[in-house]
């Protein structure tokens, strides 16, 4: 007894796949779109539908595919001709329409207003560019000031650490001297900032 795969394709499914793919070809769609459409209908992946089409179904519909491609070309030609005819008709209507003096005046006023608006936009653009350049210069100046202040802060911190170190050494010396004997110790500052006992 031969077992039938659970995902085997039925004749109805093959027929649906062929109909949908041929319709997409006729209407100018892609086969991938057709596979996704069939996949949704049959609860299969688009890849599975594409594999079935290419491995089995397509071979049975060669003539129908060619016919669908011809129909697609004819449809495209008709659409181009229709668009051209529609464009000519629109141009003819526009050419035959007489303009009134009020329409011409209204058009010129709108044109004048659009020119003024355009000039306003150009002026505003120039002003914004100028502001941007000034801000850029300010940023550069502030960055230089920040770098300078960071250097000064670093120097102050180093000086502070040196001072703390000197004071700590002096405290230790005083504590040591007091513990040994209560004699007075005098210190003097060296040139490099260290304390020395006199």
Entry summary:
The protein has 198 residues and is mainly alpha-helical. 80% of the residues lie in helices and 3% in strands.
Would you write up a description of this structure?
The protein is mostly helical and 198 residues long. Helix content is 80%, strand content 3%. It is built from five helices and two strands. It has a two-stranded antiparallel sheet with strand order 1-2. The N and C termini lie far apart (114 Å).
Distance between the termini: 114 Å
Strands side by side in the biggest sheet: 1-2
Overall body shape: elongated
Main beta-sheet annotation: 2 strands, antiparallel
Task: Look at the helices and sheets and give the structural class.
Answer: mainly alpha
Number of helices: 5
How much strand content do the residues show?
A: under 5%
Radius of gyration using CA atoms only: 45 Å
The proportion of residues forming helix, as a percent range, comes to over 70%
> Secondary-structure element sequence?
HHHHHEE
Number of strands: 2
Mean pLDDT: 84
Low-confidence stretches: none
């Amino acid at each position: 007894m031969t077992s039938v795969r659970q995902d085997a394709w039925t004749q109805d499914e093959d027929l649906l796949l062929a109909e949908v793919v041929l319709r997409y070809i006729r209407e100018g769609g892609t086969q991938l779109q057709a596979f996704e459409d069939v996949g949704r209908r049959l609860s299969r992946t688009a890849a599975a539908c594409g594999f079935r089409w290419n491995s089995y179904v397509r071979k049975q519909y060669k003539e129908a595919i060619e016919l669908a491609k011809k129909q697609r070309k004819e449809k495209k030609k008709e659409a181009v001709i229709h668009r051209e005819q529609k464009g000519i008709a629109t141009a003819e209507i526009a050419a035959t329409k007489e303009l009134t003096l009020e329409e011409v005046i209204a058009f010129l006023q709108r044109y004048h207003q659009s020119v003024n608006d355009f000039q306003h936009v150009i002026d505003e653009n120039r002003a914004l560019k100028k502001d941007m350049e000034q801000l850029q210069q300010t940023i550069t100046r502030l960055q230089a000031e920040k770098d300078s202040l960071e250097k000064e802060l670093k120097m102050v911190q180093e000086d502070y650490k040196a001072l703390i170190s000197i004071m700590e050494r002096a405290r230790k010396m005083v504590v040591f001297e007091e513990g040994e004997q209560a004699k007075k110790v005098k210190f003097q500052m060296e040139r490099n900032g260290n304390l020395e006992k006199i």
